[in-house]
Design goal:
- Helix 1 packs parallel to helix 3.
- The chain has 5 helices and no strands.
- Helices cover about 55% and strands about 0% of the residues.
- The chain has one domain.
- The protein starts with 10 loop residues before the first helix and ends in a 14-residue tail after the last helix.
- It is mainly α and about 90 residues long.
- The longest helix has 15 residues.
Length: about 90
């Protein structure tokens, strides 16, 4: 996998980061194991939609929150990060 070669986050990485944001909002700080914190706090497996609903209530808030994960900032664009690519990563 080319994970080290990409500047965007994979889906699981986004969920982990969203759980950390949720923990901070709930006053729990930044848990070392975000998924374990979620399971203990909410009594189940992390659910992307439920996490988003806890953090950002409106569609516009959600769009703003998620934009940073996938769209490059000016600095990232200048550094050549998060740019579209046709590169294909193969598992070995």
């Amino acid at each position: 996998m080319c994970r080290d070669q990409v500047a965007f986050r994979l889906g699981g990485d986004v969920v982990q980061d969203l759980i950390r944001k949720l923990a901070t909002l709930k006053g729990a700080g930044t848990p070392a194991d975000a998924e374990a914190w979620y399971r203990t706090t909410f009594g189940g497996s992390p659910d992307y939609s439920e996490i988003l609903d806890e953090i950002a209530k409106s569609p516009s808030e959600r769009m703003q929150l998620l934009r940073g994960y996938f769209e490059p900032s000016e600095q990232e664009r200048d550094e050549g990060r998060k740019l579209p690519t046709a590169r294909v990563c193969l598992r070995s």
